[in-house]
């Protein structure tokens, strides 16, 4: 009897928020998951919690998406530990919101480096492995990737870039058997931008909801590709 292959995912920025919600959903689907954080202790703590769902299915890795070598090492660690890489969910992100008059050069650079260049580095680091497994590259963008707003110059620029990057990459790699999709959430109840989730966030999209969307994308027939998905809260406050 042939042993079934256990698929493997790498989720950047997976120690909390959307990334953790995605990792949790994938493990419940029987997929082994490596999560990254710039903090090894944060990655280990999240992985330990995830391993209570299925023991040995989660791995924490310290990695910085702003550095290509760091992403390459993360992918090598995943393959060394789990033996393969089938899915990469490029989720790591940061938000700096201020009018252009007040936005600093450092805030601009960090936003672009993490939110946009980090996605490019994640793609470059994983392409060979995803080509081998005919895998899936999923980016977590935002409705800010099509809807601009005051104080959003850095964030809008980064997320518009992620949407454009994802759609163009999809066309580059589809004939190699790699799928690419971007998920564009609206308000999500996470710690993003120093927010502390509370009962007041019940109207918002929850991290596990985005996890469900990623899970559903992976389960789509190979012939079908939902390349861009916009997600909104059903009943936002008036």
From TrEMBL:
An example GO biological process term is:
monocarboxylic acid metabolic process
Q: Ranges for the Ketoreductase domain?
A: 7-192
- Matching SMART domains: PKS_KR
The secretion signal range is none
- Could you tell me the superkingdom of the organism this chain comes from? Bacteria
- InterPro entries this protein is in? KR_dom (IPR057326), NAD(P)-bd_dom_sf (IPR036291), Sc_DH/Rdtase_CS (IPR020904), SDR (IPR050259), SDR_fam (IPR002347)
Q: Which SUPFAM superfamilies match?
A: NAD(P)-binding Rossmann-fold domains (SSF51735)
Family matches, as PROSITE patterns: ADH_SHORT
The protein's matches in Gene3D superfamilies, at most eight in alphabetical order, are given as: NAD(P)-binding Rossmann-like Domain
Protein family membership:
Belongs to the short-chain dehydrogenases/reductases (SDR) family.
Q: What is this protein called?
A: NADP-dependent 3-hydroxy acid dehydrogenase YdfG
């Amino acid at each position: 009897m042939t042993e079934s292959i256990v698929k493997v995912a790498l989720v950047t920025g997976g120690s909390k928020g959307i990334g953790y919600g995605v990792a949790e959903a994938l493990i419940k689907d029987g997929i082994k998951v490596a999560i990254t954080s710039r903090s090894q202790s944060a990655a280990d703590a999240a992985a330990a919690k995830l391993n209570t769902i299925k023991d040995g299915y989660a791995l924490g890795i310290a990695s910085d998406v702003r550095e290509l070598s760091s992403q390459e090492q993360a992918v090598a660690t995943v393959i060394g530990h789990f033996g393969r890489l089938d899915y990469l969910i490029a989720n790591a992100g940061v938000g700096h919101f201020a009018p252009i008059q007040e936005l600093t050069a450092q805030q601009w650079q960090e936003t672009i480096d993490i939110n946009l260049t980090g996605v490019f580095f994640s793609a470059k680091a994983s392409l060979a492995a995803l080509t081998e497994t005919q895998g899936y590259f999923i980016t977590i963008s935002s409705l800010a990737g099509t809807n601009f707003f005051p104080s959003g110059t850095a964030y809008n620029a980064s997320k518009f870039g992620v949407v454009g990057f994802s759609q163009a990459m999809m066309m580059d790699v589809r004939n190699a058997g790699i799928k690419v999709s971007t998920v564009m959430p609206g308000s999500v109840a996470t710690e993003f931008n120093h927010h502390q989730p509370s009962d007041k966030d019940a109207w918002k999209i929850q991290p596990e909801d985005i996890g469900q969307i990623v899970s559903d994308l992976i389960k789509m027939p190979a012939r079908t590709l939902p390349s861009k998905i916009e997600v909104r809260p059903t009943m936002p406050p008036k």
